[in-house]
Amino acid sequence: FADRDGLIWFDGELVPWRDARVHVLTHTLHYGMGVFEGVRAYQAGDGTSIFRLHDHTRRLFRSAKIMNMPMPFDAEELNEAQRTVVRENNLREAYLRPMVFYGSEGMGLRADALQTHVIVAAWEWPSYMTPEARELGIKVNTSSYTRHHVNISMCKAKANGNYINSMLALQEAVRNGCEEALLLDPEGYVAEGSGENIFIVSDGVLYTPELTSCLDGITRNSVIELAQECGYQVVEKRITRDEVYIADEAFFTGTAAEVLPIRMLDGRTIGAGRRGPITRRLQELYFDVVQGRSPAHAGWLTDVTDR
Ligand code: PMP
After folding, report:
1. Do 173 and 166 contact (CB within 8 A), yes or no?
2. Is the ipTM of this complex over 0.95?
3. What distance in angstroms lies between residue 184's CA and the mean position of ligand 1's atoms?
4. Every domain of the chain and the residues it spans
5. Best probe residue, ligand 1, of 255, 258, 283 (max atoms within 8 Å of C-beta)
6. What 8-state DSSP symbol labels residue 159?
7. CATH 3.20.10.10 fits 131-290, yes or no
8. How far apart are CA 115 and CA 71, in angstroms?
9. Residue 215 Cα to ligand 1 middle (Å)
10. Between 3.30.470.10, 3.20.20.150, 3.30.300.20, 3.40.50.300, what CATH number should domain 7-123 receive?
11. What is the block-wise mean pLDDT of the chain (307 residues), using blocks of 10 residues?
């Protein structure tokens, strides 16, 4: 993945992909304290637009604040950096990865001379799931790994180290023949997927876990707004795994996963065992918005060129 053409924004400069290197004593590599974002740009109209760029950048700054990492750039500079990497790499659609990390200025947990560095990379990353999965849904297992406790890891931060837990859960799910994991919080209530928020539909009402230990997903927020605009009631509450078993529909949301139906959890078929009608409607609305077909939500799109 490192040996390819392209440009990466690195501390304010565009550098060739192959030269965007760090030292093996990079602090974040050792202890996992860093923060990042996952952002998507879509072809919208005759241009390319980044979906909810300002909201992603805002979450990145909030993550850095939670981790007490000083930010060497302001939000405007990072918004520009993200537009630039999509444009300069000639990407029509892209996944963007801004990341904030400590360099190799010191070692050990007490290191005090650390400097914060920022990269923004962008590449083509079609869809997280096949078109069939988008329509038929995926198989999920409840993870044997518990999602973070709110006082062990900071759950509002999209922090590098938090993803050890996600990877353990995802690897286990795949080993068990599933496509994703559902993680429960330390009290046993439904939290989220390895990199997605979850919704269920019961009797026409949408339910999603409160923002206690799950990430404040931007897709989650978008889907709540789209559902309410359609007149659906959306309730944020504690959800148990058996509520998911007996739901009419269930789906994941995330920048990478977009709106992804869940057809089975722990061997129990959910609803009709394929994408349900409300999931389908929200999925279509979501794609309309990100691909620029929804004038009412044009404010969520930022063109990568100045037009
Ligand atoms: N939960 C976790 C743990 C995630 O990593 C992500 C992906 N950022 C999400 C939820 C979904 O967030 P978003 O919709 O902002 O991508």
Report:
1. no
2. yes
3. 15
4. 7-123, 131-290
5. 255
6. B
7. yes
8. 9
9. 6
10. 3.30.470.10
11. 96 98 98 98 96 98 98 98 98 97 97 96 87 94 97 96 98 97 98 98 98 96 98 98 98 97 98 97 98 97 93
